[in-house]
Structures are given as C-alpha cells and as structure tokens.
Write a structure and sequence with these properties.
The structure is a homodimer.
Chain A: H1 12-20, H2 23-33, H3 39-46, H4 50-62, E1 66-72, E2 77-82, H5 84-87, H6 90-103, E3 111-115, E4 124-128, E5 140-144, H7 150-161
Antiparallel strand pairs in A: 1-2
Chain lengths: ~170, ~170
Amino acid sequence: MQPRKKPRSECPAARTLESVGEYWSILILRDAFQGFTRFDEFRRSLGIAPNILTRRLKHLTAQGLFKRRIYHRKPDWYEYVLTEKGRDFFPVVIAMFAWGNKHLAAKGASLLMADRASSRGVEPVMVAAGTLAPITLDNVVLVPGPRASRDVHRRLDAMRALRPHATV
Amino acid sequence: MQPRKKPRSECPAARTLESVGEYWSILILRDAFQGFTRFDEFRRSLGIAPNILTRRLKHLTAQGLFKRRIYHRKPDWYEYVLTEKGRDFFPVVIAMFAWGNKHLAAKGASLLMADRASSRGVEPVMVAAGTLAPITLDNVVLVPGPRASRDVHRRLDAMRALRPHATV
C-alpha cells in the first residue's frame, strides 16, 4: 500500500504516513476514538470487507496503536483497545475533521465537535505548547534534529534558499 | 485510490481522506508547505514517478488545494501555488509530524520544528480556539450539525450508549 523501496524516511510526517497512512486505517482509528473496539463494530460502521478489516487491524496492532484484549472465552474473541500511541493519533484525525468541515461542507456540517462538559462548540486550532501561539506556515521553520543526516542538512539549506511561500 | 461506492461521507474526517487521503498527495502538500512549487522540485524531493506526480498535482489542483500559475512562456511552464484551502491543510501535516517524532523516532528526531523568530523548539498541541484548552479524547464529543441526516443521529445515539474509551 505504501511505497517501501527507500530506507525509512527521516521526515516524521512521512514516517507517520508509512506507518498508518492508509484510508481504512485512519477511519478505523477514527471509530476507535468514538469508543469502538470490536471487529463487528468496525465492520458495520465502515462497511468494509472483512478480509481488509482483519488486515488493517493486524497492521495497526503490529504498529502498536492497538492492543488485543480477550473479551469472550471458548471461542476466544478479541477486542482492539487503543494504546497510548493510538490515542496520541487523535490530533491527526481532529485536524482532518476541522479541515473537512471548513472546506468540504459547503452546504453545512453534518457533524461538529463540542466540549463534553459545556456542550459548547469546539473549533480546533494548532498552537505551540508553552506559548500557546498558533502554529502557521509563516511562523514555524524546520530545523535539524539530533539524528539529522547530511542529506537532511542539505535539504534544509536548499529550503532556506527558496523563495518564501507564495499564495494566491 | 479511495473507495467511492458510497455517497459522500458525512464525517468531515472521512471526506478529507476522500479528497486528499493518499500517501503522495500528503507528501506533495508537505513539500509545498516548505516552499516548493515546481514539478521538478517535487519530483526530485519525493523521488516519485513523473506520471504519478502529474496525476496527483492534477488531482490536488482539481480539489482546489493548488492553483496553477505560469512562470515561463514558450514553452509554457506552470508552477503549483497553494490556495487558502491548501494552506489550511497545514495542521494535518503538523499533527502527523508531531506524532511521528513522538512515536516513530525512538533513536532521536531527524527533523524538528522551531519558531521562525526565536528559533526555539515548537511542540504542537491541539486546543480549542477561544478557551485554548487542549482537545483530548476525554473532553470532546461529536454532535450533529445542521446538515446531519437521520443516519448521523442514529450513529451518535449508538455511540452515547457505548462504554467509554478504554485504554491499556
């Protein structure tokens, strides 16, 4: 599904896509965030073919986003419970949710997010922890981390030489 | 690439995946956020086959995330400039970036984000606009929007009846 000719990407966004960047995987996680844990819950919710669902659940478990837990003996039935790594994927789905409502719901939203306690609508925004300043294309920049290869340094130097982001 | 048997999904996260939920599309956007606009810049950066790159750029332009702009006459060469809709996709890539660095860089990060002015490291966090309270699995809930179908209402009722999110 994902291209794997090259060595593991150094960009963390690309790694994320290599790990869970697949249509069904992300929708399975979306449903898990809504409390679903069982094969049949996912299958009914997604209308997904059982063999594909089996494969994606196995993959997400192998990647450490789900942990299997037995909930019925003889026959043994397992449910798929989000790990901390899986729960931490929530902001990715939230960001997609917000973008979808802003740009793909011209006739009005079908689903919105609300604060669980106050029931007030919640509009997600990405900020920097600490300063709480919004993160925008204009105020952040990529810098090499401790494991940056020579290639990453070269890329970042090339980027600095580029014209700034143009918009229309 | 994306399943399109069903009518357009009512979930905005699913719609987003239907619109740009594809490995290369998201990496093309990632590179556009770094200032790339030209076919050869994307091709060299991604090591992507030209026919696939052509198809993905065409798709992202048709979806309104890029606008073509001529930058050379005879022959006419176009560059791909992010629209507001395209720029607004930035938080999705940021969220993937942060997750990748947290969970897929056990030996240390190759790339980090920093504030452009202060050069200080930036750790992204998703908060609610207005209150600036972090958005977590435990404090937000889905509610029907103005265009919610009967099916959405049914799903939300079923979710409310579910056990709360379990973790391991």
